[in-house]
């Protein structure tokens, strides 16, 4: 199931002895485990470990041997994790990095600028969608691409491709798909899931920017009943929950943008995690919209998939999906 390839991406064998835990969407890393007695010794730094035709995989950067546990641990960043280790920088003399053009051309240009085009390939398609976008200063390539694509209803599609003549990571901007009308995680599917509804989040954020004392830039942001963020309060009295956000180098525009992002992390939220057995890769990907319902508590969620975790143990696969976001 897990394939091992060398630094030149030449496939060596199927690494069936490995247990695997591969997370994409948040931490974007992997850990694979071999019992010491099963360790063959052909997995090295720079080796590729992946599942063909999926996003699950990456390059080995850490190997740990534990005699107490009689196990060898192999770790590294996933393909998505590699994007998180590159930075989008403003061009010389500019405050922000801005782009415009066809979405796939822009994606291809950014991948090349970050030095990843020897492994990552953006295919040429018939999609003529164009975009104009300004990135946050010195954001990661992953965060930048995610935010840029999300602004037009797109997401990143990542997949390791191996043919007889080549091996590469295909990275492609594609429209998000809303599966919520036909795919709802609930007791009806006899699935194992966890539903969480947090209604105790922050709804008033005081953002502190550039300046000192009375001259400091102060911006108040308020969560509204529908989950939007505005400049006037909706929740007051006992219902108001306030916190400060310190960003001492920011002017008002940047302070508002970053403060809004921070408040979305702190506000009321619903989270839903579901385990699906024996299903390595469904058509639902990071960024797609799905629904979740717990009949016991009445929690209902319709949010993007934010995390996928693949666990392989004793030859059995289990994929966990997590969806979360503000109410």
Descriptive account of the structure:
This protein has helices at residues 79-83, 103-113, 141-150, 252-266; strands spanning 3-5, 11-14, 19-24, 29-35, 48-50, 57-66, 71-78, 87-88, 98-102, 120-121, 130-134, 139-140, 154-162, 167-175, 184-185, 192-198, 204-208, 218-223, 229-230, 242-246, 269-277, 289-293, 300-313, 316-326. By secondary structure, the protein is mainly beta. The protein has 4 domains: 3-77; 86-175, 3-Layer(bab) Sandwich (Phage tail protein beta-alpha-beta fold), CATH 3.55.50; 184-198 and 269-326, no CATH class; 204-266, no CATH class. The strands form 5 sheets. Strands 1, 2, 3, 4, 5, 6, 7, 15, 16, 21, 22, 23 and 24 form a 13-stranded mixed sheet that branches. It is globular, with a radius of gyration of 22 Å. Mean pLDDT is 88; it is low at 187-191 and 277-281.
Characteristics:
mainly beta; Phage tail protein beta-alpha-beta fold; 4 domains; 13-stranded mixed sheet; four-stranded mixed sheet; 4 helices; 24 strands; globular
List the topology elements:
Elements: E1 3-5, E2 11-14, E3 19-24, E4 29-35, E5 48-50, E6 57-66, E7 71-78, H1 79-83, E8 87-88, E9 98-102, H2 103-113, E10 120-121, E11 130-134, E12 139-140, H3 141-150, E13 154-162, E14 167-175, E15 184-185, E16 192-198, E17 204-208, E18 218-223, E19 229-230, E20 242-246, H4 252-266, E21 269-277, E22 289-293, E23 300-313, E24 316-326
Parallel strand pairs: 10-14, 15-22, 17-20
Antiparallel strand pairs: 1-2, 1-5, 3-4, 3-23, 4-7, 5-6, 6-7, 8-12, 9-11, 13-14, 16-21, 17-18, 18-19, 21-24, 22-23, 23-24
């Amino acid at each position: 199931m897990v394939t091992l390839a060398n630094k030149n991406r030449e496939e060596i064998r199927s690494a069936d002895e490995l247990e695997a835990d591969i997370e994409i969407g948040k931490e974007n890393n992997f850990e694979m485990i071999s019992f010491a007695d099963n360790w063959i010794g052909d997995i090295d730094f720079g080796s590729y470990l992946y599942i063909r035709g999926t996003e699950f995989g990456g390059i080995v950067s850490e190997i740990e041997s534990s005699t107490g546990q009689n196990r060898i641990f192999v770790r590294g960043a996933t393909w998505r994790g590699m994007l998180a280790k590159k930075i989008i920088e403003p061009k010389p003399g500019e405050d922000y990095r801005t782009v415009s053009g066809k979405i796939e051309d822009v994606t291809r240009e950014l991948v090349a600028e970050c030095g990843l085009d020897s492994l990552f390939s953006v295919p040429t398609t018939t999609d003529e969608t164009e975009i104009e976008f300004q990135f946050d200063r010195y954001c990661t390539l992953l965060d930048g691409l995610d935010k840029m694509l999300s602004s037009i209803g797109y997401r990143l599609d990542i997949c390791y491709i191996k043919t007889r003549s080549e091996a590469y990571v295909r990275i492609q901007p594609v429209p998000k798909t809303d599966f919520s009308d036909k795919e709802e995680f609930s007791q009806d599917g006899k699935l194992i899931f966890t539903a969480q509804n947090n209604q105790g989040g922050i709804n008033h954020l005081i953002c502190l920017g550039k300046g000192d004392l009375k001259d400091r830039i102060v911006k108040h942001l308020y969560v509204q009943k529908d989950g939007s963020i505005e400049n006037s309060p909706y929740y007051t009295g006992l219902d108001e929950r306030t916190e400060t956000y310190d960003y001492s180098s920011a002017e008002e525009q940047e302070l508002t943008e970053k403060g809004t992002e921070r408040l979305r992390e702190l506000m009321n939220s619903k989270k839903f995690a579901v385990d699906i057995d024996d299903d390595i890769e469904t058509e639902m990907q990071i960024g797609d919209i799905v629904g979740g319902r717990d009949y016991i508590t009445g929690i209902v969620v319709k949010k993007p998939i934010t995390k996928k975790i693949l666990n392989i143990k004793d030859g059995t696969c289990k994929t966990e999906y997590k969806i979360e976001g503000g109410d």
